[in-house]
Amino acid sequence: MMSTRTSEQAAKKLGIMMSSRSSSNGQAAKRLIIRNLKVAPRNEEDNFLSLWKHIDEAVRAIHESRPVSMSLELLYQSVENICAEKKSSMLYSALRQLCEEHIRREVPKLTLEMNDQIEYLKLLNRHWEDHCSHMVMICQIFLPLDRGYVLNNPLILSIWDLGLDLFKNYIIINKTVQTRCISGLLTLIDSERSGELIDRSLVKSLLTMLYKLQLYQPIFETEFIKSSEKLYSHEGESLLQTFEIPEYLKHVEKRLNEENNRLLHYLHPSTRQPLINCVERNLIGEHVNTILQKGFDNLMDDKRLDDLKLLYNLLSRFLNGVEQLKNFYSQYIKKRGRDIVINPEKDNTMIQELLDFKEKLDLISECWNNNEKFTHALKDSFEHFINQRSNKPAELIAKYIDTKLRAGNKEATEEELDKILDKIMVLFRFIHGKDVFEAFYKKDLAKRLLVGKSASVDAEKSMLSKLKQECGGVFTLKLEGMFKDMELSKDVMSAFEQQLQIKTSLSIYVNVLTLTHWPSYTASNIILPPEMSQLQEKFTEFYKKKYSGRNLQWQPSLGHCLVKGHISPGNNKEFQLSLYQTLVLLLYNAKDDLSYEEIFESTKIEENELKRTLQSLACGKVPILTKSSKGVDVHSEDIFKFNKSFTHKLYRIRINQVQLKETQEENQSTNEKVFQDRQYQVDAAIVRIMKMRKSLPHNLLVTEVVGQLKFSIKPADIKKRIESLIERDYLARDEQNPNQYNYLA
Amino acid sequence: MKVTIKGYTGVAVWKWVANDDTCGICRMPFDSCCNDCKYPGDDCPLVWGQCSHCFHMHCIMKWVNGNQKSNQSCPMCRQAWKIKEK
Amino acid sequence: MAQRLQKELANFMRDPIPGMSLDRNLVEGNLNVWVINVDGAPNTLYEGEIFKLQFKFPQRYPFDSPSVMFIGNKIPEHPHIYSNGHICLSILTDEWSPALSVQSVCLSIVSMLSSCKAKSRPPDDERYVQTCRDPSDPKKTRWFFHDDSV
């Protein structure tokens, strides 16, 4: 079919005869036939021979590329006449014989010894092209034969196909010709693959020939793929040894482009699938693990977006390729993430590093073609590693937020701050022990509100609403209560000031807290100077009158004062101090040096607090006192002296940051409180599981408990809870097997 | 040196003056609110009876108003429930 | 109500009453029915006997009293306990107070059993068991109380 159509197309191109016939109409054809009948001679046999003589000569001339002496139209008429006399079969055989003889004569010309492969290919191509143009002319002359005889006998080849058939069977099937042709083509392609320029039109022409002869697949493609296999399997092995992965990936991409170009320019489209598959398989598919192992982490470390994108595209062509890539991705996140969270020495930078890491991963995410599996892998892996270190990340996230929300943090505008908070919420989402976060957040928020002066109420409220959105209203109920207390205190204070008739030189402001909203503070009894305690007393009276049924408990550790200090003539300062610092400095109104014991007796500030306070006054950035002993530690034998030569470039000086700092005890007690709350949850989980299972061995029970809890817990701690439940008769050890527990109903 | 205090910002925690820690009806601590409220304080006040027992106002009201026999007795001591005006 | 019952459950577990234990086969999430195993106390008439006491909590608990009765085939033989398990105890109806709890009711029942000097059924047992309004809910009965001292 194909070849018949091409023959007609070729005929059209040549434009002889065909065009004149197609321009004449049916009438003209009829007239011709009538004239032919008139010319018809008496003897049919003689007539055939005489007509054939001309035709034979013409065909021979065509074969030898000589001019044809007779007009093509007359030749055509002769053929038509022969056909009209029903001698088509004879004519066909004669033509066939003529062509066959010609082809046979051609064969030796193509089997001659010849060293230059390209020259040989050119020769073969010339023969082919000649063959085609000869056949086109022949077809035109013999058109009536094709239209009548051939069409009516389906087993007979059309004249064009006959030509192809002969060319195929006498020339190409010839072992020598075939071997030279194929090896010549492969050599050309090989040299193109190694970077040389080749005559692509020659290759294309010969490949088209093979295709038309239906030999492309059996004799060329198989060999071609075989040689490509060999080349690329070798290339894959060796380049992976010498190339870095990004370089290698680029090379693979280049190879794929080249082969696609080959397909575009001379290979038949049917070769695409086996060829591209061959390149991909040999350069990528066989080496997925090696490539990932050798290069993936580096690509990630260096944020090589283009290379990662390319890697994804290349691997996505293989079953499991993307899956393997995803596994390396998960492992990478877990590995690098763990490095960030696991080392206590790096706690100071942990959160910033986590934020940077997350940002980097988000940036890289664009390489994964929106594949949801990678989104999940990122989440899962992040969640996995961040909880490898229990509790600490949650605590540090809370503290990080604290530094951002504290007054004096002017690094960021409101908008930038909000963005930072949004990012930190993403980390927060991964954390299992949200209770730890809540405890530290609450403690820090309390200090910001009561001591440090929060940077901005808007930012605080915005953070609160983010937490509410994430964890629900119950989580933030108490935090909101804290803000409510602050508002209420404002109202209470303005009412208090109104009823205070005389303006005192000392003004007071009180934050009145609702016990359950705030972290629990230990009450302590300290000695206040009379004017302060009177003022406190006045406020307490006022409050009790306003809110009957209530009483106030003062929390001196959270109080702070604005103090005017007259250091020496002309050296006046204003200090922002903690209440404890104030009480200590007040003592120096009477005396210039005081022993630790004296200070303690006059203030009754609890020992650890007092030491911290003295440290802040004598060993900090604002040394308003001097300490008798060297070093920063405060001892009970120390004498503290007023520093007369104290100077500071500022007039207003804050020393009360000491209140904002978290002490070790504070940290510990915050943690302990969380763990106590958790014990109930652990107990409840154990009982729930045992009630359902009735009897379980130790290990299984521990595993199930861990699975149910939202925070991580050490197996040893679970064991303690199990023992406590045994003591309380919820569980019992199995009598036969002490590692098995039974539920007691 | 001479130091003078100009301003004092103090912190105090308020507590109910109650003769018990928890409300005898809902069993919640007085420092928290009753089960129907969100915040302790003015939103969920306490009331004291003349018998000196006290409850969340919401809790005792439910008892006093809801009982079919209009039982006006203190849940703790069964004396007649009368609010003590302070 | 659920919050208060949770608290009571926790309390009941933390400070158990001697001889009483919660049958822990409570349906998870449904705290409204409790069954308590009662061991007859030593040195009383009920020593060695085991009873089951059932609490059902109404919607308005603790403002309405729970309905409390003995269930199962062993019903303590006591002048204030009917053979269908109903208990004649004032705090369960007229004298209920929201300050009472499962624990205080249990304590009353323990002391009621412990102070018993002779096993017998209430005098109107036969009639009551046949005519009471709802055998499964003693609260439907209009009680008058025999004797507060026992």
Automatic annotation (TrEMBL), chain A:
* Biological pathway: Protein modification; protein ubiquitination
- Pfam families the UniProt entry points to: Cullin (PF00888), Cullin_AB (PF26557), Cullin_Nedd8 (PF10557)
Listed GO biological process terms: DNA repair; ribosome biogenesis; ubiquitin-dependent protein catabolic process
Chain ranges of the Cullin family profile domain: 392-618
Q: Which PROSITE patterns match?
A: CULLIN_1, CULLIN_2
Molecular function GO terms recorded: ubiquitin protein ligase binding
Q: Which parts of the sequence are annotated with region: Disordered?
A: 1-23
| Domain of life, source organism | Eukaryota
The record's SUPFAM superfamilies line, in alphabetical order, gives: Cullin homology domain, Cullin repeat-like, Winged helix' DNA-binding domain
Query: What keywords appear on the UniProt entry?
Result: DNA damage, DNA repair, Isopeptide bond, Phosphoprotein, Ubl conjugation, Ubl conjugation pathway
- Output a single Gene Ontology CC term carried by this record: nucleus
Q: Please give the Gene3D superfamilies that the UniProt record associates with this protein.
A: Cullin Repeats, Cullin, Chain C, Domain 2, Winged helix-like DNA-binding domain superfamily/Winged helix DNA-binding domain
**Of which family is this protein a member?**
Belongs to the cullin family.
Q: What is this protein called?
A: Cullin-4
What organism is recorded for this protein? Brachionus calyciflorus
From TrEMBL, chain B:
RING-type domain ranges (all copies): 34-78
Please give the chief subcellular localization of this protein: nucleus
What does the entry list under GO cellular component? anaphase-promoting complex
Q: In which pathway does it act?
A: Protein modification; protein ubiquitination
Question: Where does it reside?
Answer: Nucleus
Give the superkingdom in one word: Eukaryota
Query: What keywords is this UniProt entry annotated with?
Result: Cell cycle, Cell division, Metal-binding, Mitosis, Nucleus, Ubl conjugation pathway, Zinc, Zinc-finger
Q: Describe the subunit structure.
A: The mammalian APC/C is composed at least of 14 distinct subunits ANAPC1, ANAPC2, CDC27/APC3, ANAPC4, ANAPC5, CDC16/APC6, ANAPC7, CDC23/APC8, ANAPC10, ANAPC11, CDC26/APC12, ANAPC13, ANAPC15 and ANAPC16 that assemble into a complex of at least 19 chains with a combined molecular mass of around 1.2 MDa; APC/C interacts with FZR1 and FBXO5. Interacts with the cullin domain of ANAPC2. Interacts with UBE2D2.
The record's section on PANTHER family has: RING BOX
Protein name per Swiss-Prot or TrEMBL: Anaphase-promoting complex subunit 11
- Organismal lineage: Eukaryota, Metazoa, Spiralia, Gnathifera, Rotifera
From TrEMBL, chain C:
Q: Does the keyword Transferase apply?
A: yes
User: What's one GO MF term for it?
Assistant: ubiquitin conjugating enzyme activity
Give every UBC core domain span. 1-150
- Tree of life domain: Eukaryota
Enzyme class at the top of the EC tree: transferase
Signal peptide range equals none
| EC number from the UniProt entry | 2.3.2.23, 2.3.2.25
Q: Which SUPFAM superfamilies match?
A: UBC-like
Q: Which reaction does this enzyme catalyse, per its entry?
A: S-ubiquitinyl-[E1 ubiquitin-activating enzyme]-L-cysteine + [E2 ubiquitin-conjugating enzyme]-L-cysteine = [E1 ubiquitin-activating enzyme]-L-cysteine + S-ubiquitinyl-[E2 ubiquitin-conjugating enzyme]-L-cysteine; S-ubiquitinyl-[E1 ubiquitin-activating enzyme]-L-cysteine + [acceptor protein]-N-terminal-amino acid = [E1 ubiquitin-activating enzyme]-L-cysteine + N-terminal-ubiquitinyl-[acceptor protein]
PROSITE patterns found in the cross-reference section = UBC_2
Q: Which UniProt keywords apply?
A: Transferase, Ubl conjugation pathway
Checking Pfam families in the record gives:
UQ_con
TM stretches of this protein: none
Q: Which GO terms describe its biological process?
A: protein ubiquitination
Could you tell me which PANTHER family the record lists for this protein? UBIQUITIN-CONJUGATING ENZYME E2 (PTHR24067)
Name it.
Answer: N-terminal E2 ubiquitin-conjugating enzyme
Which species?
A: Brachionus calyciflorus
Classification lineage: Eukaryota, Metazoa, Spiralia, Gnathifera, Rotifera
